[in-house]
Amino acid sequence: MKKTTVLFAALAAFLLSSCAFVAPMPGTIYTGMKAGSFENSDVKAAKEGTACAQSVLGIVTWGDASIEAAKKEGGIKKVASVDHESFAVLVYGKYCTIIKGE
Predict the structure, then answer these.
(1) 3-state secondary structure string, 67-88?
(2) Could you tell me if 76 and 67 are in contact, meaning their C-beta atoms sit under 8 angstroms apart?
(3) Stretch 50-67: mean pLDDT, rounded?
(4) CB of 99 within 8 A of CB of 49?
(5) Cβ count near 97 (within 10 Å)
(6) Is the pLDDT of residue 68 over 90?
(7) In the chain, which ranges are continuous DSSP H helix?
(8) pTM above 0.85, yes or no
(9) Contacts from 7-15 at CB under 8 Å and sequence distance 24+?
(10) Which terminus, N or C, of the chain has the lesser number of Cβ atoms within 10 Å?
(11) Is residue 34 a contact partner of residue 83, using CB atoms and an 8 Å limit?
(12) Given pLDDT bands bounded at 50, 70 and 90, which one contains residue 40?
């Protein structure tokens, strides 16, 4: 009985640690961060497009956070910058790609 309880507790801790992992630096309880990955000063940042993916418990994930999806959403042909934003609280997480351009 005691081995089963210890095994169950260890398994639960493993499965629930950073359940909604959405960032390169996840917090155990909360994550809220922004990161830039590309910038082209030759292109005006006149338009913005965002594409997101979401996760629950790290078990079910849906959405399209690709650069192409963000470009399409913003009607962007030339990219000025690519940024990423992530948010997670315990079991829910969201990861977005934000594109600016023309």
Answers:
(1) HHHHHHHHCCCCEEEEEEEEEE
(2) no
(3) 92
(4) yes
(5) 23
(6) yes
(7) 2-16, 67-74
(8) no
(9) none
(10) N
(11) yes
(12) confident
Find tokens 């089963």 and name the residue: 4
Closest Cα to residue 53, out of 88, 99, 94?
94
Q: What are the Cα distances from residue 15, in Å, to 52, 59, 62? A: 24, 10, 19
- List all residues 6 or more positions away from 50 whose beta carbon is below 8 Å from its beta carbon: 70, 73, 74, 96, 97, 98, 99
Confidence of residue 7 (pLDDT cuts 50, 70, 90): low
Q: Which of 31, 35, 66 is nearest to 50 (CA)?
A: 66
pLDDT at 73 over 90: yes
Three-state DSSP class for 11? helix
Which residue reads 């997480």 in tokens? 93
What pLDDT was estimated at residue 101?
95
